[in-house]
Amino acid sequence: MSETPSTRFSMIHLTSSEGQVPSPRANITHPVVAKRISFYKSGDPQFGGVKVVVNPRSFKTFDALLDNLSRKVPLPFGVRNISTPRGRHSITRLEELEDGESYLCSHNRKVLPVDLDKARRRPRPWLSSRSISTHVHLSSAAASVPTTAPGMLRAPRRLVVFRNGDPKTRRVVLLNRRVTQTFETFLQYLTQVMQCPVAKLYATDGRKVPSLQAVILSSGAVVAAGREPFKPGNYDIQKYLLPARLPGISHRVYRKGKPVLEKRKSGNWKVSVITSDFPNAGTSSQVYIVLYGQYRSSVPIYLYGRDGARFQDGHKDIFTITVGDIGKPFKIRIGHTNSGCSPSWHCKGIELQNMNSGEKFYIPVQRWLAQEQEDGEICREFPILSKGQPVLPVTTYQVHITTGELWNAGTVANVYLSIYGEKGDTGSRRLFRSKSALKFLRGQTDTFFLEAVNLGNLCKIVIGHDGLGQGNGWFLEDVVVRDPTTNHEYAFFCHRWLDEGEDDGRIVREIYARDNTIFSMRKKLELKRKEIWAAESWKFTKGNTLQFYNKLTGGFVRLHPDGMVDAVGEQTDRYGIFDVIFNKGNICIFQSHEMRHLSLALDNNVPSGGALTELRVLYQPNRCALLESALCPGHTLVVDRHGKIADEASVGYSELSKEFLVFVKGIFLNSAVVILATSLCQALCLQPGGTCSGAGNQSEQSYWRVHRVSSGICMFESVKNARMYLRIKDGRCNGTGTGDTDCHFKIKRNLENASISLESLKNPGLFVGLQPDGQAKPVIYTKDENVCFYPRVIQFGRENPMGMSATPSQGEDEIHVSKHQKEVPPEPKARRPTLLSTEEESRHSYSTETLQAEDKWRVLVLTGDTGTQANVTLWVYGDEGVTGPISLTKESPEHLFLPGQQDEFQVVLRSIGEIYKIRIGHDGTSGQPEWSLQRVTMEHMKNKKTLHFDANARLSRNHANGDVVCELPVMKEGEPVFPLVRYHVDVYTGQLKQAETESEVYLCLYGERGDSGLRLLHRSNMPVRFQRGQIDAFQIEAVSLGNLQKVLLHCEASDKSQYWYCEKVIIREPDTASESIFTCERWIPFMSQGLMHSEIELYCQGEN
Question: What is the gyration radius of the CA atoms in the chain, in angstroms?
Answer without folding.
Answer: 36
